[in-house]
Amino acid sequence: MTDTQYDLVVIGGGPGGYVCAIRAAQLGMKVACVEKRGALGGTCLNVGCIPSKALLQSSEKFHEAQHELASHGVKVSGVALDLGTMMARKDKVVSDLTKGIEFLFKKNKIDYKVGSGSIAAPGKVEVKLNAGGEETLAAKAIVIATGSDHVDLPNVTVDEKRIVSSTGALSLAGVPKHLVVVGGGYIGLEMGSVWRRLGAEVTVVEFLDRITPGMDGEVGKQFQRILGKQGFKFLLSTKVTGAKQGKDGVTLTVEPAAGGAATTIEADVVLVAIGRKPNTAGLGLDKVGVALDAKGRIQVDDHFQTNLPGVYAIGDVIRGPMLAHKAEDEGVVVAEIIAGQSGHIDYNAIPGVVYTWPEVAAVGKTEEELKAASVQYKVGKFPFSAGSRARANGFTEGFVKILADARTDEVLGAHIIGPDAGTLIAEVVLGMEFKAAAEDIARTCHAHPTQNEAVKEAALAVAGRAIHV
């Protein structure tokens, strides 16, 4: 056992943890990062954001070759799926990025400890090394960045073969004839899109009466309509009460959420995607007295410090949306705070994106939230069907919607459903960081023809003066 002194030890090497470690090293700290997976990048890089986007991209190309290229005058015949190659490409993307983070650790002289970390006492981290043995790290500051894990459904046991979490859904051995997705949130719809494009019948079972419940209502309705046209089937206001595995598949038992007679659904594969929970087990938090809230999240103050001096937490283990980019920003800010600088995050200016096709992106308040808070607001909306670039590209469904304060014109929220929505939302996020008015966006010159012009037109529409609709 060795006892090494560090300025900072980060437990968790995901987006929040590794970014925190790098920023701290940039600020001159001696840093160690403890990660048990054996690969840096956390859930996001290894079994989440990155591999799912790789499969989304590949499946889009397969679908395009089958159904869309002909309209562009590109005739393709004999299109066939090579799932093995598609999965190998996904794995290589993950591997290359993981190695890239290891390179950044070496570049910034960060010690990478492969093992499970726990807090033995204030300023002391015990590491059970994957290779065997233990190591004790002494630290002036400790940051917990251990991320989250999937939530299990009662009476439905995930085996990552027939009944899978998002992790198993990334590595199916073949295209299921019928995939049932339990949960109508971002993760389930993205993975459902992958396998739907590759030929699976997809049924989404959602307990609530709508998919993506946190999304702006108008956008959510349009989103469900478009997914329905793509072949998705939806069972809303429905709960899953059991699952029985057979030789060739799974029999799900479902009931109306409000109560009623049970029915069954036959599926080849069931994806359980009903949410995520913070990873706090095994950290020794109860032993050292770190406080958790009612949802099992670590309680922190405005500087990300727990009730235990010198121990901080960021990312999915604390309050707020479970998003990789939220964790990254928190990692930077907490490193700067530990270094004696100031840091701040505007949680109202954190975008969320569903990477289906079309993409759906949002930032700030929804109409429902503004109404509930009795905020007077104006709406500006512009359909992609009226945009030149959308017409040229051949995808015109969806719209941009901007919500602005009725008195000050400050942008309060934006919601986009359409091509590249995740990219288009960025200028609104930047505007909101600087407290921009809708008029500020409307009077900013946008290149023509681009998809971004739809954002400008929606901003113009707030004042009732959109040009092209």
- Contiguous helical run count: 14
- Largest beta sheet: strand ordering: 1-2-3-4-5
CATH architecture of the largest domain, by name, is 3-Layer(bba) Sandwich
Average pLDDT metric: 97
- State the fourth-level CATH superfamily of the largest domain: FAD/NAD(P)-binding domain
Characterize the biggest β-sheet: 5 strands, mixed, barrel
> What is the name of the CATH class of the largest domain?
Alpha Beta
Number of discrete domains: 3
Portion in beta strands: 25-35%
Shape descriptor: globular
Rg measurement, Å: 24 Å
Number of strands: 21
| Amount of helix | 25-40%
Task: Please give the alpha-carbon distance between the first and last residues.
Answer: 70 Å
Q: Indicate the structural class.
A: alpha/beta
Q: Kindly report the CATH topology of the largest domain.
A: FAD/NAD(P)-binding domain
Report low-confidence residues grouped into runs of 5 or more. Answer: none
Core attributes:
single chain, 469 residues, alpha/beta, FAD/NAD(P)-binding domain, Enolase-like, domain 1, 5-stranded mixed β-barrel, 5-stranded parallel sheet, 32% helix, globular
